[in-house]
Amino acid sequence: MTPPDRRLTPDDRERFARQLELPEWGDAAQERLRDANVFIAGAGGLGSAVALYLTAAGVGRITLADPDVVELSNLNRQVLYTTKDAGRDKVGAATDRLVSLNPSAAITPLRERVDADSAPGLLAGHDIAIDCLDTLAARFVLNRASFEVGIPMVYGAVAGFTGHVSLIEPPETACLECFVPRKEPPAPAPVLGCTAGLIGTLQATEAVKRLAGVGETLAGRLLVVDGLAMRCDVLEVQRDPACPVCSSR
Predict the structure, then answer these.
(1) Does residue 1 lie in a domain region?
(2) Could you tell me if residue 220 is inside a domain?
(3) Three-state DSSP class for 232?
(4) 177 by DSSP, 3-state: which?
(5) Rounded to 5 degrees, what are φ and ψ at 80?
(6) In this predicted model, what pLDDT tens digit does every residue of 174-212 receive, in sequence order?
(7) How big is the chain by its Cα radius of gyration, in Å?
(8) Which stretch of DSSP H or E encloses residue 55?
(9) Contact indicator for 155, 207 with CB cutoff of 8 Å
């Protein structure tokens, strides 16, 4: 059997022309994106920006998991959706939008919650997981599953005008439980919509670099963004020797 032609098509070259011109990029990086399989946990404010930019960049396969429906109160930050989508399940509305953006992308919508029982199975077969969740418990579940399956995870969180981004690389780097306090906030944090877009775009940038094999990532480091003061800091993160997830690995 003749193997499929994996070269970029004329449509690929037109669609991705501006990034193909980057000296760090080229055909090989674009082909790695096209062959990648990404799991995005959460289709809210962070997930909207992540899914849009990964699809636009040419990631070939994306699984998008979220159990919720679109509400009007989502629309200040969840830019995947329009007012007409109110009441629809998020992953269905998101799939329609993403396929209209890039018809060659294969989007798998999962209207389900990522929990301790399902997470390892959901992540299996993917190249990277992206944390766009909105509770600490769910983030810790995804973090543990990424170590069990052995794939990197892009962490992102946002509250008000501030946000965090990091890349967790099992088993080399500290995991999320090493540097995030184990205390759930009492209620969902208020958030400026464009702050969620900023952090989600940074997460997408980390994922694209990691998948394409270009640049320096945030592995082992935490980017802290203060949008109100428009200041960024990068902190080194160390493994907690008592961490229940990664200390024994």
Answers:
(1) no
(2) yes
(3) strand
(4) helix
(5) -70, -20
(6) 999 999 877 777 677 889 999 999 999 999 999 999 999
(7) 18
(8) helix 45-57
(9) no
Q: Which domain holds residue 108?
A: 10-236
**Cα 157 to chain centroid, rounded:** 11
Question: What is the Cα–Cα distance from 204 to 210, expressed in whole angstroms?
Answer: 10
Alpha-carbon distance of 3 to 21, in angstroms, equals 28
Two structure tokens written together for 237: 């993160």
Structural tokens at position 92: 């269905």
| CATH number of the domain within which 221 lies | 3.40.50.720
pTM of the model: 0.94
Give the Cα separation of 114 and 122 in Å (integer).
Answer: 8
Q: How far is CA 39 from the centre of its chain?
A: 7
Domain count, the chain: 1
For the stretch 38-96, pLDDT in tens is: 999 999 999 999 999 999 999 999 999 999 999 999 999 999 999 999 999 999 999 99
| Domain membership flag for residue 28 | yes
> Following DSSP, what letter does each residue of 90-159 receive, concatenated?
HHHHHHHHHHHH-TT-EEEEE-S---TTTHHHHHTT-SEEEE--SSHHHHHHHHHHHHHHT--EEEEEEE
Can you spell out the DSSP letters for 206-228? HHHHHHHT-S---BTEEEEEETT
Phi, psi at residue 53, to the nearest 5°?
Answer: -75, -30
Pair 48, 77: CB distance under 8 Å: yes
Rounded Cα gap, residues 5 and 1, in angstroms: 12
What token pair was written down for 69? Answer: 């429906």
- Does any domain span residue 178? yes
Strand partners, 110: 65
